[in-house]
Amino acid sequence: MHVAIAGNIGAGKTTLTRLLAKHYGWEPHYESVEENPYLDDFYDAMERWSFNLQVYFLNSRFRQILEIRENAKEIIQDRTIYEDANIFAPNLHAMGLMSNRDFDNYSSLFELMERLVTPPDLLIYLRASIPTLVDHIHSRGREYENSISIDYLSRLNERYEAWIAKYNKGKLLIIDIDKLNIVDNPEDLGYVINQIDAQIHGLF
Question: How much is the pTM?
Answer without folding.
Answer: 0.90
